[in-house]
Amino acid sequence: MSDIALHHESDVSILGNLNATRDSIVTDLYRVHNSWLLGWLRKKLGCSFDAADLMQDTFSKILQKDDLTSIKEPRAYLTTVAHGLMVNHVRRRDIERAYLDALENMPEVEVPSPESLNIMVETLAKIDEMLDGLPDRVRSAFLWCQLEGLSHAEIASRLSVSVSSVRQYIAKALLHCLNMNS
C-alpha cells in the first residue's frame, strides 16, 4: 500500500498528471540524448558494454528523481549523473581487481564462491565510498586499526605522528562514517 494518502479524486488526477509529465520528460531526454550519452560514455570508458550499462543506469537514476522540471541543461545534467555513476563503476572495478589479485595466491580450497566474492566486493566498495573524502592519514589510521588490528602506537609509528594524533584521526573517521549513514 502506498505511503501517500489520497483523499480526493483530484489528488489521483494530479498525481497522474505528475507521473505523465515525469514520464514524458524522461522519454524526451532518452529520445533526444541517449545516442549522445552512449557515445560520451563509450569514449570515457573504452568499452561499449559498460557504456550501455551505465547509460541505462543513468536513465534509471533519473527516473527516481522527484523533480525533473528544473532540468535546464539536459546534457550537463545527464553528464553529471553519468559521471557520478562512472566514478563508482571505475572505483568498484579497481576494488574488485585488487581483491582478485589478493586472492590469486590463496589455495584453491580457500577461494570464495562467486556469490561470496560479489558480496565481499560490494562490501569493500561501500567501505571505500564511506571513507571517500577523508585525508590519507585519517583513512590509513582507521583502516590499519580496523582491518589489521594495529595499536594506536603502531599506527603512530607508521605515520610518524603522535598517538594523540592517531586517536584524533580515528575519531574523525568514525564520525565521518556515522554522518554518512545518517
The topology string of helices and strands comes to: HHHHHHH
Nearest-integer average pLDDT: 85
Structural class: mainly alpha
N-end to C-end Cα span = 26 Å
Number of helices, counting only DSSP H or I runs of 4 residues or more:
7
Overall shape:
extended
Q: Indicate the low-confidence ranges by residue numbers.
A: 1-8
Helix content: over 70%
Largest sheet, strands/sense/barrel: none
Radius of gyration: 23 Å
What proportion strand? under 5%
DSSP, total strands: 0
InterPro entries: RNA_pol_sigma-70-like (IPR039425), RNA_pol_sigma-70_dom (IPR014284), RNA_pol_sigma70_r2 (IPR007627), RNA_pol_sigma70_r4_t2 (IPR013249), RNA_pol_sigma_r2 (IPR013325), RNA_pol_sigma_r3/r4-like (IPR013324), WH-like_DNA-bd_sf (IPR036388)
Keywords: Sigma factor, Transcription, Transcription regulation
Family: Belongs to the sigma-70 factor family. ECF subfamily.
Pfam family, one: Sigma70_r4_2
What's the short version?
Helices cover 77% and strands 0% of the residues. The protein is an all-alpha fold and 182 residues long. α2 packs across α3 (74-103) and α5 (136-147) crosses α7.
Describe it.
- Residues 125-177 form the RNA polymerase sigma factor 70 region 4 type domain.
- Keywords: Sigma factor, Transcription, Transcription regulation.
- Belongs to the sigma-70 factor family. ECF subfamily.
- This is ECF sigma factor FemI.
- It holds the Pfam family Sigma70_r4_2.
- The protein is an all-alpha fold and 182 residues long.
- 77% of the residues lie in helices and 0% in strands.
- It contains seven helices and no strands.
- The chain has helices spanning 9-45, 48-63, 74-103, 114-131, 136-147, 152-159, 163-181.
- Helix 5 packs antiparallel against helix 6 (152-159), helix 5 packs across helix 7 (163-181) and helix 6 (152-159) crosses helix 7 (163-181).
- The longest helix has 37 residues, at 9-45.
- The two termini are 26 Å apart.
- 11% of the residues are buried.
- The model is unreliable at 1-8 (pLDDT under 50).
